[in-house]
Amino acid sequence: MKSNTIGNEMLYGSIWDKLLKFAIPLALTNILQQLFNAADIAIVGQFVGKLALAAVGANGVVINLFLNLFVGLSVGANVLISNLAGRQDQARIADAVHTSMAIAMAGGILLAVFGVFFAKPILVLLSTPTEIIEDAILYLRILCLGMPFLMCFNFVSAILRSIGDSSTSLWVMCITGFVNVVLNLIFVLCFHLSVDGVAYATVISTIIGAFILIHKLARAPNATKLTIKNIKFHSKELNFIVKIGLPAGIQGMMFSLSNICIQFAINQLGPEYIAATAAALNYEFLAYFLLNSFAMATVTFIGVNYGACNYQRCKDIVKSALILDGIVTVLFSALIVIFAEQCMVLYSTDKTLVEHGVLRLKYILSFEFLNVLIEVFSGSLRGLGISFVPAIICFFGICCFRVLWVYTVFAQFRTFSVLMMVYPVSWMVTSVALIVVFFKVTDRILNKL
Question: What residue segments make up the domains of the chain, in order of their start?
Answer without folding.
Answer: 11-445
